[in-house]
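Exercise 7.
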Amino acid sequence: MNILVCIKQVPGSGNVEVDPVTGTLKRSGVKSKMNPFDLYALEAALSLCEKEGGTVETLTMGPPQAKEIIIESVCMGAKRGFVLSDRAFAGADVLATAHTLSQGVKKCGTYDLIFCGKQTTDGDTAQVGAEMAEFLELPGVANVLSFDEVKSGSVTLKASLDGEVVRMTVKTPCVISMDRDVNMPRLPSYRVKKGITDDAVTFFSLQEMNDTDANHYGLLGSATQVERIFPPKHDKERRVVEGSAAEQTEAIFDLIRRKKLI
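Solution. The predicted structure, written as tokens, is:
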């Protein structure tokens, strides 16, 4: 069984600046980490291959430094990984991201299962997995909790759908979006890291994709764009109301009414 896990490098802190022109995160100089949701997907893939046999590879899209999480995935047990890196990919919304990743999947090889995390901590759309399935013309299942049985040509799994746990059998290849807190991701191996060679990570650019039309990628290929983004305001206004209970009640009611909260 061959499994590909899509992973993403996300900011390691919530204190990230936003480009006022493009509406995208300023990632330069910000400490990054692997998206926590993707860790569950990677652990599920590794555990499945340990049980059924096979290999796990990883795929990410991002700047050259995204290589770091590919190396981390190899240290956790993946065979190798791929980085889709090109300026043309920058600023992508979920549609352009899903298109880029699906093109990357086709470039990387043939897989029985394609895993994704439920969502990312920097976007939280939870749409990329489903859109990838559409681009790849494959079955897709979201909120997967566990796997019951794996056969040649199908996989039986449990997924949380509309508040119910549903058991279903899906034909392979298919795209799986793993839910959170479904396992305990293993730690990377320092011993493996010391022995990693350059061929563990492969880079692909736009010109190496099957679809080389730049209008389908990044900001140009995005169906949605951020019109305006700003940090939330922290209103620390405080007022002390004194007097009897009746006076305090009247004062509070008057304040709420003047602020048009009722």
